[in-house]
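Lab notebook, bench 4. The sequencing result for the construct came back, and we need a structural model before the next group meeting so we can plan mutations. Quick request posted to the team channel:

Model the 3D structure of this chain.
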Amino acid sequence: MQTTLRLLLSKLSFLLFFVSTFISAQESVDRFILDSLFKAYGNEFPGFSYSIIKNGKILENYNFGLANIEDKQKAKNNTNYRLASVTKQFTAMAVLMIIENDQLTFSTVLTEIFDDFPEYGKDITIQQLLTHTSGLLDYENLMKENRTIPILDEEVLQLMKEQSTTKFIPGSKYAYSNSAYAVLAQIIAKRSGKSYKQFIEMEIFKPLKMKKSVVYTKDSKIKYRAYGYTITNDSIIFSDQSMTSAVQGDGGIYTSINDYFKWDQALENNQLISPELKNKAYTIQTTIPESEWDYGYGWRIKYDGKTKIISHSGHTSGFTNYVVKIPDQKLTVIIFSNRKNDKNVIKIGDILLKKYRN
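Done. Here's the predicted structure in token form:
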């Protein structure tokens, strides 16, 4: 009996040693990968800021490189980055706030909101706009190629009004749509009586004390602003704006890791909408074929076993961003960068999430 017990304890001890050795080795590998990735962000290059939040506390804040190369301004916790499509979670939240205020429903259709919207709009609902299943044509493909002034949300809506068809029958499939979120910005304005900028800044930024966050317009004064760049071989090219950079609803918010912490905690504590409605945003509303991620309201969603992970990236002229969360663990990883098409941002975010998850 004692011999058997000793044998079992010996095997258990070996197993624990093997597991701890494996975990330690894996952590070393992840650390090595992170260190290798971080080397790309030297002091003289465009950089990024990241933050790790767990259980309402900031575990790590870190900044690399420059927010403004011309003036040699370093990236800091209060550096304001253009969020690109990470903005969509704010647009979706504004829509949910208006729904909760009984000024809109998920089944409201475009022709109920805009009297002059074409007939095809009677089949497009708020639900479909939020979940990229509306089939609206891409405004990027409808813009005149030679335009010199950035397009605005109201112009996107007008372009949609000039169409007579959609990509597919609304609700029949998924196709990521910046047009939908630009139209949602105009719906927010129509139903709330405030412009999209006014609504976001008055109903979200102000109560959450996100004092330095801004919805972009060409005359915006953005304190501690990061400017966007493209790195090509050995060249750093200033690429802060494009002809689509002034569209607000699909990507026009600037914020910092400092202010995003306040937003993250507002989500955690259900400060803006009911827990039930927030959970709908975190629930799969449409599946995406051949993708590990599905879509909720302004968030991508997947499961790792039974663990729900939600995220959204943002890619635009001069910026790449990534926010990824495990809601049940109150864990959030935020990475904002002023580099165009920086694939390292997603890799770093996923490694950091793995490091801190339970």
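The mean pLDDT is 92.
Will bring this to the meeting.
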